[in-house]
Amino acid sequence: MKLKIILAFTFIFFTQNANSGLNRLIERNVKDASKFFEQVIIDETEQQKEPARLWIHVRNENQKKDLKEIAEWLKNIKLNGITIELRPIRLVEYGPNKPDLRSFKKDDAEEAKHLLTTLQKIIPKLELKDLSRQYRKIVWIKPGHYELWLSPNTKIIKLTK
Hints:
The chain has five helices and seven strands, in the order H-E-H-H-E-E-E-E-H-E-H-E. Helix 4 (109-119) links the parallel strand 5 and strand 6. Helices cover 48% and strands 19% of the residues. The mean pLDDT is 84. By secondary structure, the protein is an alpha/beta fold. The radius of gyration is 28 Å and the shape is rod-shaped.
């Protein structure tokens, strides 16, 4: 009988300690998850505040010169109320046969369409090229990364004020 009482007491004692430890572990996990969730929300908010970046690739010096002449117009393009960041214009030897605007993230689709419509004012035959499927696993390309690629014969319409 004494053995049964000792076993019952031991079981009750360890069960209470185990429940207490489990409750503390659960509370700690909930707090950690809450902190992580808050950080994710903060990171997403900050990420949305970053301006979109436009990388421009031209095929000849005349295109580069024409784009530099309208650089202020390009720098004033806004996406979601935020002015885009115009990256340096690069002269490249190879590229597409038709001018295209490339987007790399699926979530950028609507923004890319807006940017396309704006850029078609200076490059009417510009087409949108969605590369999000090919680049979905590439993590170093941030949301809001766009590339404008001109073909050798692309003419830039100079806007009048």
